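> tool_call: predict_assembly(chains=four)
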Amino acid sequence: MPKVSFREQVLRAREDAIVASVNRLLAEKGFDMMTVDEVAADVGIAKASLYKHFSSKEALAAAAMIGVLDRALAHMAGLAANAEASPFDQLQAVARWTMQVQLAGQMPSLPAQNSTLRAALTSNKDYLDRLMSVSDQLGEWITAAQAAGTINTKLVPELVLYTLFARACDPVLTLLKAGGQYSDEQIIEMLLITCFNGLR
Amino acid sequence: MPKVSFREQVLRAREDAIVASVNRLLAEKGFDMMTVDEVAADVGIAKASLYKHFSSKEALAAAAMIGVLDRALAHMAGLAANAEASPFDQLQAVARWTMQVQLAGQMPSLPAQNSTLRAALTSNKDYLDRLMSVSDQLGEWITAAQAAGTINTKLVPELVLYTLFARACDPVLTLLKAGGQYSDEQIIEMLLITCFNGLR
DNA sequence: GTCTATAGCCAGATAGAC
DNA sequence: GTCTATCTGGCTATAGAC
């Protein structure tokens, strides 16, 4: 059925374009400041057409989050394939990747306190599955690093996990970048020092 | 003029009550989710009356921020009076205080990206003066600690300052608290370890 | 200065023709 | 599925009586 398949392909491409716009706008302005009108204008379609693809603004944000989690999982799978690296190195590589995404303006930022958004995310199985996968992989590396003595065993794995997640929305990164005195690489290296010396 | 003075006292008290409500609601829901109607209802006055005291929602938030900066300055003045403590200890004490305020639900949280709010704050002299005072005092302790070798000299003071500021809105704190497995004091002590071992 | 009532606006979501 | 046009609700801010 080439005709149907082609149509579906076009739809998929359009949805990908939508999610890409949402991802960028979420990174630029955050969820509350991003408007659906903006998204429609950025994609180049009418707002009503957007709602044929995604049922709400929250669904748009969820799709963007799923996208970034998929990219994170792909990156982590690449790291896991490298048998030589230590768990500590893997964790550091993940944190570095996270910061690079943020500095590139591609890390969607969601408010922690918006209840409608939280409700939408916590009831979205696709999102939760991926979040769980990321947490599981990181959790393995964390406990392995603690067993190897490279991460402080006085710090509960939960704390270490959250600390790594927090690197994805670290305001220090934004402030240093805004200062304009340091290169992206310098910023990342300094933050990796403060983060991982603190965990060691 | 006891009569006028009394009137002014009542006004002041009412404004203090307003700012206290705003502070709490900002901590609970954040700037975007907090509505002026809520503030009025919480204080127990009509919304129009609120606008006789504060000209805008942004002015309300600014007043709350000025309040917390004043409390921070008072706390730091107390620390500075203790001549025995090292600069490193002073910095740690400030971070601890910041986290305690946050865990007590009294740290107003503002979005970094709201442009109208940013404009209001960056053109508010009372706010900027206090922010500058806090930064100056922290900056002194930071350079002193670096001179004493207790803070890593490879980390530029700017980074250290931002890192300390970021403790006031650390999502790790919120997440661990939400987990409910650890006491406030345990959470704070673990976070102080990760923060200050990273700076050392 | 306090209130009730409302203006004005904007953003999320939908109706209905094509 | 796409569009134009519109609805709906909620929010900031103000008018005007007292």
